[in-house]
Amino acid sequence: MQKYLPIHLLFLALLFTGCERSECSECVTSSVASQKQTQPFPIKRIASRVADRLPNVHLNRDDFDDKLANNALMLFIDSLDYGHSYFLATDLAEFRLKASFLDDQIKAGNADFAHVVFDRFKERLDDRTAYAYKLLDEGFDLDVDETFRWKRDKEPWVETKKEWDELWRKRIKNEVVARVAALEAEPEEDAVVSTNVVEAAEVLSPIEFVRERHKQYQLSIENNFDEETVLQRYLSAFARSYDPHTDYLSPRGVEDFDIHMSLSLVGIGAMLRSEDGTAMISSLIAGGPAEADGRLKAGDQIIAVAQGDAESVSILHWPLSKSVRLIRGEIGTKVVLTVIPAEDRTGTRQKKIDLIRDEVKLEESAAKGKIHEVESEQRSVRIGQLVLPEFYADFNGANNGDDDARRCSIDVKRILQEFSTNDVDGVILDLRNDGGGSLSEAIDITGFFIPFGPVVQVRERHGVMVLSDNDPSVLYKGPLIVLVNRLSASASEIVAAALQDYERAIIVGAKKTHGKGSVQSVFPLSKLTDDLGSIKVTTASFYRIIGGSTQLRGVTPDIILPSLFDSLEVGEEFLDYALKWSQVRLAFFRSWEKPVLSMLSELRARSDIRIATDPDFQTFLAKRDRIRERMETPVVSLKLSDRVNEILAEQEIENLQESLLDDTESEEDDPILSETLHILADMIDLSSENR
Fold it and tell me: Does residue 192 belong to any structural domain of this protein?
């Protein structure tokens, strides 16, 4: 039976820490080892079934053919060598000669070519690691005026060994210059003293730091890429040639799926993302062990993990899911983390922190409400900000008859009722950074603001369905703004599009939303055993009630505000083989009784004047322009004196990029929210004038 997934970019994490689901590192290690000892990995059955199922269940039903195989080959190569630094052009020419045969090989259950490419990659990795050590032993002249092209994902692979060596000389020198410049630009401060710090970790010189990074990367490839891992990456390249959200999930990949989606650290209460080969803390969960302990904080980078009093294991360059496995464990057990503190940009100060694992209930993604007092041109108004980080729903709890099962629609309804009790004059539905979630929750929440009617259209292979809100009641009828950004995706786009099409709300935010207008389903490759894994396949796409898809184009706000995302490659259109935009017929619906679009020109004019004269917003624009300048400059200086000057600007940009996922905290630190509050205040004034 197929398992339908909620619409998503980010899932709600259920942070339980016991071993009931065999998710702690000890359970996983033993079960995998046992499986490998008793039976070989069934590559032939897996490969042939993937080739058979993908064209039959994917929305577009594209053939599993030579064109697909050529695309898959390049995706697989890029997954190993994204920076185009390890392989040579001669390697690529050799591989491409075989490309047209790969689809037939997979159909026959033959995935041997994956190891041909991977074994060549390991040869090149060993060669380049040895060469890096040689360069580090010889040292560099950091006063030479030269540059390095850091952005190489679109660059051709080099032709000759001479070009290869020169590329790597500059690459390794760049890493050393970056570390030395960081030390000079931000001298090491005294380490923070804490009675709970287990011990200070070893401090490495810049040369040894770079050497250790390359050593750890080499070890990571050797230790983490077993037969199952290579096959998952290879078959996923074929799957992603259909679209970027289609995947092959190996048996371990199926188990890790929720971890990848939630980016969660189970057992210590923190949210994690991959960053520069480390596991970086993006935020702490309220009430979790880490938050209660007080020593870990957002921006800290975990580089090693120990179980109790055992020796630490480096997790540099590990897959995120494997790092999570090592950190999670049974309630009451101790885990020791080696971290680089967030305030240490150089990475030269490290410390070890011990924590006791405990059960964590995630409140990070729960809907939240806040009331702001804003001065309009006519009076002081009260505006309710309703922040919804994702469209969550505890389906398991609901299916098991749990009357208290968590649903975001219930939380949103409660907050709107509280706003009504507190006599708010307007509401901002803040969907920034909301990557999606439950489709049914999105429909229910849309229904809080409109009478009954269609909300979204869904196209599957066999036709188009119109999904509607069937509740004629309207929970909130007042002035409404939906605030979005580039990370507002899927279910967020459905809600924003529907409220825009009904002319019920004004949409405010970045130039466009993410543009993910597709639905994925998971199909096990076998109903009898789980040792073949599953395929995650795009099976449907979303359409607005006016007929156009949210795919690629997303939702264009009625009032566009500058965004720190403007110069970053964030959005569906930047993903390889993204589905194309399309449209279906218009669904019948009636516009809101008091359409808001008539006041748009006046609202835009007032907003433009405020932005042009607001010093805080001008500072925000200057920061955005700094990001644009940096991202549009593909080279960096390898001269130390230049780099010391550049490193301070780079650090500021890194801070800004990290803050993109956490920009809804307060009006004072959030110029986008501040301006949106004033836009809604203007809207309230204009609505009063038109009564």
Answer: no
Of 490, 492, 534, 541, catalytic: 490
Round to whole Å and give the CA distance between 268 and 332: 11
Q: What pLDDT digit, counting tens, does each position of 19-31 carry?
A: 222 222 222 222 3
289 domain residue, yes or no: no
Please indicate whether residue 490 is annotated as part of the active site. yes
What's the gap between Cα 296 and its chain centre?
22
Q: Note whether residue 155 is domain-resident.
A: yes
H or E element that contains 176 = helix 161-185
Give the torsion through C-alpha atoms of 20, 24, 27, 30, to 10 deg. Answer: 160
Could you tell me the residue range of the domain that residue 633 belongs to?
368-450+471-512+555-578+589-689
* 373 shares a domain with 237: no
CATH number of the domain within which 644 lies: 3.90.226
Same domain, 506 and 639: yes
User: Domain check: are 389 and 242 in the same one?
Assistant: no
CA distances from 54 to 241, 331, 542, 577 (A): 11, 40, 20, 15
* Same-domain pairing of 242 and 375: no
Which distant-in-sequence residues (6+ apart) come within 8 Å of 14 by Cβ?
258, 362
Query: Is the whole-model pTM more than 0.85?
Result: no
The encoded tokens of residue 159 equal 């032709």
Q: 303 by DSSP, 3-state: which? A: strand
Selecting among 501, 670, 682, 685, the annotated active-site residue is 501
The candidate with the shortest Cα–Cα distance to 552, out of 560, 543, 565, 561, is 543
For 575-625, how does the pLDDT look when each residue is reduced to its tens digit (9 = 90+)? 999 999 999 999 999 998 777 778 999 999 999 999 999 888 888 888 788
Is residue 144 pLDDT above 50, yes or no?
A: yes
Number of folded domains in the chain? 2
613: left (phi over 0), alpha (psi -120 to 50) or beta: alpha
| Residue in this structure with the two tokens 């004004």, named with its chain if needed | 506
Q: Would residue 533 count as lying in a domain?
A: no
